[in-house]
Design brief:
homodimer, about 250 residues, alpha+beta, four-stranded antiparallel beta sheet, three-stranded antiparallel beta sheet, 10 strands, DNA-binding
DNA sequence: CGATCCTTTGATATGTTTCAAGCTTAGTGG
DNA sequence: CCACTAAGCTTGAAACATATCAAAGGATCG
């Protein structure tokens, strides 16, 4: 079953941050979860609602966003397969932002109570999951900096570096290139820019020779260059040491 | 001892999110911590270093920030007395951002190992602390939106609303007004603007009649107006229900 | 194979920054 | 308590990065 394989990826990710023993692992595998397919653009969580549980993203991409009173959208995070998208829903009540599928995919929903029981009984698991949420928070902090203090070119370069590094760490990107599952409008909403300007910046990055594009596929032609342009330092991702380090950098 | 009183404030904050029993409370009170005074501007944590423990802010204000390669500073969060400033240091290694005292104050440092032991043995405490870090993350998300998608006037109004609400919830602000412990340059770094523009926006907010200023003291003359200008909805603060609700809104 | 969504391009508008200088406040030592 | 100094605040004028508006050209998917 693909669910089991995906769960193992989730467990591997957890183990990277806190040692788990066999009972911990079995408890996670025994987690009740309802799996479902979602189409591109499907809402997984809506701001203001109280979600029934936490979501694990098994296949496909998802993003979190908020909409201002003026109707402007800001994307806050993009999630890749194997990540918990909404662990906070086990402990916070009303959702403070939306989660939407970026592409077609598969998600597993775990009831709130199951997560609470698990983390009450298995401190190692609690610690690992807590650490995951702390890393999420670290990424949010970097995004505040990116959107608040970097030029448009740096912002987009930084975003591309982050994806490359995270995808590579999960073995989801072939060397130095990947298929970016976002439209230019979504890149704009993630960087606090307009779609038109994103288009010009992507062209500019091409002209600079640090990336090459073919439709949605991005090839990083000069990693060091892109990293410098984007002022990218992977420290904030807190990549675990006991996993294969990304070949990048 | 003022430390005991401050610790009780911290415990009260924790209890708002997960029920604690007497043994939980005693375990927290028994936490080994070294208290020290800090002057305005003192570094509490430096990016790149591995802090020896977690910090509780007993008195005074503190802020987290990062500096880009270009030398621009972005403030990511401001902390008020009674808050844990760096719970993440118990589980993450190298600090990914700086923490600096905003004003003169007092901090208590708890060794990493003590926090780990505490949370391993007392699941209620772990859940409460975890929840606190999830709320921190929610605030970061709102800051991404604020800096990414709101006009300069709205950004600053939003910041002022957030402080008013948080200070009021902790009983630290007199009705509708407070002493903002930030310079205009720091407000600029928190909102992704320049100090010059912050000055103009503050004047504009005064002209609009939503705030009045006397040196650093801010009086909110029209809460509903400021809230509307700042597109402020306190949901993201996840204020606990079992505490005195803020009189605001 | 049509319809819709996405990308690209150009011209113009604007919010915010930059630079520069004078002014006020708060803190410090004589 | 005053004088001095540094830090922070205020103001104006000019520059610039990014937004807005508009329209044409591609890609993708049922």
């Amino acid at each position: 079953l693909p669910v089991t394989r995906s769960l193992q990826r989730v467990i591997a990710r957890l183990e990277a941050f806190a040692p788990l023993d066999e009972t911990d692992r079995q408890a996670i595998m025994a987690l009740p979860c309802s799996v479902r397919e979602v189409g591109a653009g499907a809402y997984l969580v809506r701001e203001g609602e109280t979600p029934p549980g936490c979501l694990m993203l098994l296949e496909g991409f998802a993003y979190r966003h908020k909409v201002t009173g003026e109707g402007a959208r800001q994307i806050i995070a993009v999630h890749i397969p194997g990540e918990f998208v909404d662990l906070q829903n086990a402990f916070l009540g009303v959702a403070d932002h939306n989660v939407q599928a970026l592409s077609r995919g598969t998600v597993a929903q775990v009831p709130r109570a199951a997560i609470r029981d698990l983390t009450d009984k298995y401190p190692n698991v609690a610690r690992a999951m807590w650490t995951l949420t702390l890393i999420d928070a670290s990424v949010f902090r970097e995004w505040v900096v990116n959107v608040g203090r970097r030029s448009s070119v740096a912002r987009i370069a930084h975003l591309l570096c982050e994806f490359a590094t995270r995808l590579e760490a999960e073995g989801l990107a072939s060397e130095y290139g990947y298929d970016l599952p976002m439209t230019q409008e979504q890149i704009a909403d993630a960087t606090g820019l307009t779609p038109v300007h994103v288009n010009r910046v992507l062209k500019e990055l091409g002209r600079m020779g640090v990336i090459a594009r073919d439709k949605r596929a991005i090839t990083i032609s000069d990693w060091d260059g892109l990293r410098d342009v984007g002022d990218f330092n992977p420290r904030y991702l807190h990549l675990a040491r006991n996993r294969a380090a990304p070949a990048l950098s």
